[in-house]
Amino acid sequence: MSTPSLSPRALMSLLVNASKAVDVLETAYTEGLLDALEPGPVTLGELATRFDVRPLRLYKFLDCLESVGVVEREEKGDDIVDARYRAVPGLRDAVHAVCGPGSIERDRDRYPWRQLHGRLAESLRGEVSMTDDDFAWPPKTDEQTASFEQSMSVGLGPVIEVFGQHADRLWAGRRRFLDVGGGDGTLAATVLRDAPGLRVDVYNLPAVGPLVERTRAGCADPERLGFVGGDFFAEPLPTGYDAISFVRVLHDWPNDVARMLVEKAYAALPPGGMLLICEEFRTPDRLAMQFFWSYFLIGVDSCVSRLREVEFYTSLLTETGFEQIEVLPGGWELIAAHKPEH
C-alpha cells in the first residue's frame, strides 16, 4: 500500500494534532479494530456490527486513520457501510510496540523533556539546559548509572533480533566475547542462549556491576556470564577475547572518540578476532524513531547522540586495519569485521 505525499500544510495539520492521532491509533489497537483491519478488506458495516459501534461515528474514526496513512479505503456504492477498509501490514505490531506496556516511547516520556518545551529558542542559544540532576552524561552517580542502563535495556529488541538471526555465523568457533558498554547484561544473556560454547563478559563502569549480577542471577547458565569493571577512556580494553562488540556505544561520542575506541578494540583482539558494531545507522526511519533523543538532547552539550551512515563505520574499520567487513541485515544492521590472521 502506498500513500501519496502530503503537502507541507497538510503535514503541519497532522503534526499539530499528533496527540489526537495517537489516541485514535491506541483506541483502534485496544478495541481490537486493528486485528480486523490489517488482514482486511472489511466493510464498515461488518466492523460496526462486530464491535457494536455507530456506523457514522466509525466512519469518522476511520477517516482519522486514513488521514495518517495507515488505512486504505475503497468506496463501494453510496452507502457508507459498504466502504471497504484495509490497514497497512504490520500496523498492529507497530502500535503495540509504541503504545503497549514497556514500550521505548513510554520509557522515554519519563525524562524531563517538558523543561525544554516552548523554550527551544533559548535552549539553542545555550540559555536553557538540562542540569546534572535532570540528565547527567556520562552518568555521575550510581543511581544515575543504574537508571540509564535500565532505560537502555528497554530498547534492545532490534539488537537481540539481529544477533539471534546471525548467531550461527557469529559464534561458530568463538570462545570468549566481550560486550563493551553492555549495560545490565540483557544482550549478553540472550547471546548465551544462542551460543552454547561461549563465555560472555560485560565490560562497563564498576557501578554497573550489581545490575549485571542481577541479570546473571536469572540467567539460564550464570557461570558463562561475567562482568569486568573498567573505564574505556582511561584504560586499554581487556584482552583474551576473540570477539568484542560496541552496541549503541559509538554514536554517543565524537568521531575522534569513536575512532579511538575502534583502535582499542583492534589492539585488544587476537589475529582473526571479530569486532561487532550495532547502531541505529542513519536512515529516514531511524531518524524518525530517534526524534525523542534529538529533541531532548538539544538541552545537553555533553552527549553527541549522532546517527551516522553505515559507511562511516565501514570506512573507519578499513582504515583501522580490519578485513572481511560485512553489514548483516536485521531490525538494526550489524557490522562484523575481522582482524587479519597475520
UniProtKB/TrEMBL annotation:
CDD domains: AdoMet_MTases. This is O-methyltransferase. The keyword Ribonucleoprotein does not apply. GO terms for biological process: methylation. Keywords: Methyltransferase, S-adenosyl-L-methionine, Transferase. The active site is at residue 251. It comes from the Bacteria. InterPro entries: COMT-like, COMT_C, SAM-dependent_MTases_sf, WH-like_DNA-bd_sf, WH_DNA-bd_sf. The keyword S-adenosyl-L-methionine applies. Residues 172-322 form the O-methyltransferase C-terminal domain. GO terms for molecular function: O-methyltransferase activity. PANTHER family: O-METHYLTRANSFERASE CICE, PUTATIVE (AFU_ORTHOLOGUE AFUA_4G14580)-RELATED. Signal peptide: none annotated. PROSITE patterns: SAM_OMT_II (PS51683).
